[in-house]
Design goal:
Number of helices: 3
Largest sheet: 9 strands, antiparallel
CATH superfamily of one domain: Regulatory factor, effector binding domain
Radius of gyration: 15 Å
Order of helices and strands: EEHHEEEEHEEE
Number of strands: 9
Structural class: alpha+beta
Helix content: 10-25%
Distance between the termini: 19 Å
CATH architecture of one domain: Alpha-Beta Barrel
Length: 164
């Protein structure tokens, strides 16, 4: 499984936000609809004009523990990394400094790659994820999960990790 490790300082993302939940798989249903709405409203064009830092591309950022009373609730941003001001109707989030395991994939196989990261790569890698609770939906998070959609049409899955 192809992977590279990236150490990154904290970086800022700006975009549009959806608040959803892992309960009953709701987030997995809400997020594709949200992407459709963003594309239909052509907000990705406005986001592309903001891109000026790494990681470069349109980002899907899952920010867990956004509700202190329910660990199933999370925010999902469609955003880009930027140093520019926040446009009206958008929000910002600072991704904490972390070490990231970065997995290149395609849109067609990204669901399987996500499964393989935790079932195959992680147990043999010498790393552990900074997040836990995926199996139950009650996420304890040390950093967001990130999907990077490059302008070339490739996808990277970024998972925050720490050396065991």
């Amino acid at each position: 499984m192809e992977c590279r490790i990236e150490k990154m300082d904290a970086f800022r993302v700006v975009g549009v936000k959806l608040t959803t939940t892992t309960e009953g798989g709701k987030g997995m249903k809400d997020i594709p609809v949200f992407w459709g709405e963003v594309m239909e409203q052509k907000q990705q064009i406005q986001l592309a004009t903001l891109m000026d830092t790494i990681p470069s591309g349109l980002l899907g950022v899952s920010v867990y523990n956004s509700d202190a009373n329910d660990a199933r609730v999370f925010d999902y941003f469609i955003a880009c990394a930027t140093s520019r001001p926040v446009p009206e109707g958008m929000e910002e989030y600072t991704v904490p400094a972390a070490e990231w395991a970065v997995f290149p994939c395609s849109r067609e196989n990204m669901d399987q790659v996500q499964v393989d990261i935790f079932s195959k790569w992680m147990p043999a890698s010498g790393y552990r994820g900074r997040n836990s609770g995926y199996e139950t939906g009650y996420i304890a998070a040390g950093a967001p999960d990130i999907e990077v959609y490059t302008q070339e049409g490739d996808v990277e899955i970024w998972v925050a990790v720490e050396k065991i």
